[in-house]
Amino acid sequence: MPDLSGYRFTASHEWVDGGSRVGITDYAQQQLGDVIFLELPEVGRTLSAGERFGVIESVKAASDLYAPVGGRVAEVNDALVDAPEKVNSDPYGEGWLMRLEEVDEAGAELLDLEAYEKVASGH
Predict the structure, then answer these.
(1) Residue 105: inside a domain
(2) 33: domain range?
(3) Total domain count for the chain?
(4) Phi and psi dihedrals of 30, rounded to 5?
(5) pTM exceeds cut of 0.90
(6) DSSP H or E run through 46
(7) Residues near 42 by beta carbon (within 8 Å), at least 6 away in sequence
(8) pLDDT digits (tens, 9 = 90+) for 53-107
(9) Residue 3 lies in a domain
């Protein structure tokens, strides 16, 4: 398990790290099951915190993805097109979804690791 102390999380199970990469949490990928498809945003798109930016589909369900912070999409993880299962095997590493530039935390409702773990555990 990587050191997540610098990560911040949303109650909807997305994360953002100090380098402005965004992904879903280990808890989220476990709940979804085997990821089979991802719809990610176009590079250059500007997002607001909390805005829907894509869809993740698993063998169990399809779920919307929401931006934990605002910013401009600088990069998407193209490797996930051919290997969406990386979200399951390495959600904080190779399974990242996008990287943002010009990050704007206006309206963001971010949790530190301790607060997120309480949300994920239902406490």
Answers:
(1) yes
(2) 8-121
(3) 1
(4) -65, -40
(5) yes
(6) strand 46-47
(7) 73
(8) 999 999 999 999 999 999 999 999 999 999 999 999 999 999 999 999 999 999 9
(9) no
